[in-house]
Write a structure and sequence with these properties.
The protein has 320 residues and is an alpha+beta fold. It is 42% helix and 18% strand. Strands 1-2-3 form a 3-stranded antiparallel beta sheet. A 3-stranded mixed beta sheet has the order 13-15-14. Bound molecules: zinc ion (5 copies). One zinc ion (ZN) binds next to helix 3.
């Protein structure tokens, strides 16, 4: 009596393709490898010299992937699969189930998902891929393990990035920002609430940062950057560059806050920094935005392509 495992091994040694069809048993007692009965008349040889009698070929179920007749098989999504094919099937990145029939892949990712996980799993708020046991943040965002590993949560880390980006803007674009704004880490819910009070006209749904300036008698009494935590490092740098540009605009430009040009210029500076740092994924994300930020950025890029980067800075300063 074969154990289930050794029976699988025998079937595994069968074959993927029918390589010699029809032979005639003339002499010697050939035995069918599936039913162990002597074969009479027509029989079939599959790869690895596995002999299958006519009756087994006609009556046994077939592997849904390679078509060989089966005595032992796996059942997956109501389909019978031979061991060899089963082991070769791609696996769902969430539930590890072998993927037969329809499954899902996402552009730019080598992972794949079964229909059920694709429909039922939550999505990572950063990369958008289905995720099981992701990290749930208080504002409802979910991060997949890989995005969570890259995300900026710590205040000191964020503060160091703020200093680095301030220095980079000075070095790369001669933008002097003084004093460096204070930094406040918030979640998406908090920034939304804050924006609805302080910048009701902004109309940007997906906010990751906000600059808040208060002056009394021409003197800055408050200069603050609100930064959403849990964003990837590159996004955090882009957001900081954007908000620091608003701080610079306060002293160097008369662009109207929340206007397309005002947001577009800040986004363009952040985009240029991403370009210098080779952050192509971030650049793509910024260019794809359909809101005020994306429209403003594309407008500044048009200006840059026609008249150069200096013309963009002149536009930012010129309104003064
Ligand atoms: Zn047989
Ligand atoms: Zn098969
Ligand atoms: Zn799955
Ligand atoms: Zn992710
Ligand atoms: Zn802005």
């Amino acid at each position: 009596m074969l154990t289930r495992r050794s029976a699988f091994q025998i079937i595994a040694s069968l074959c993927l393709f029918l390589f010699l069809c029809l032979s005639i048993a003339l002499a010697g007692q050939k035995v069918c490898d599936l039913c162990r009965q002597p074969v009479e008349g027509t029989y079939w040889i599959y790869r690895n010299d596995t002999i299958v009698c006519q009756r087994c070929k006609e009556t046994l179920p077939r592997c849904a992937a390679c078509g060989i007749p089966l005595r032992q098989y796996y059942v997956q999504n109501d389909k019978k699969i031979c061991t060899l094919c089963f082991e070769k099937l791609p696996k769902c990145s969430i539930c590890s189930q072998s993927l037969t029939g329809k499954y899902w892949r996402f552009k730019g990712s080598d992972r794949q998902y079964c229909e059920r996980c694709y429909r039922q799993a939550s999505r990572c708020s950063v990369c958008g891929l289905p995720v099981l046991n992701g990290r749930l943040l208080p504002d409802g965002r979910i991060l997949c393990p890989s995005c969570n590993g890259e995300a900026i949560f710590g205040y000191i880390t964020a503060l160091n990035l703020l200093q680095e980006v301030t220095a980079a803007l000075g070095r790369q674009f001669r933008m002097r920002i003084d004093p460096v704004p204070s930094l406040i880490l918030v979640d998406k819910k908090q920034i939304k609430e804050f924006a609805s009070k302080s910048r009701p006209g902004l109309g940007v749904k997906d906010l990751s940062g906000l600059y808040d300036l208060e002056t009394v008698g021409g003197k800055k009494t408050r200069s603050e950057i609100y930064l959403v935590y849990g964003l990837p490092r590159s996004t955090t740098i882009a957001v900081l560059a954007h908000e620091l540009t608003h701080a610079w605009q306060g002293d160097n430009s008369n662009m109207i806050p929340s206007s397309e040009a005002y947001e577009g210029f800040a986004e363009w500076v952040a985009f240029k920094l991403m370009e210098l740092q080779g952050e192509t994924r971030e650049m793509e994300r910024m260019l794809k935005r359909k809101d005020l930020y994306g429209r403003g950025l594309r407008r500044m890029r048009d200006l840059e392509q026609k008249h150069g980067a200096q013309a963009v800075f002149a536009r930012a300063r010129g309104a003064r």
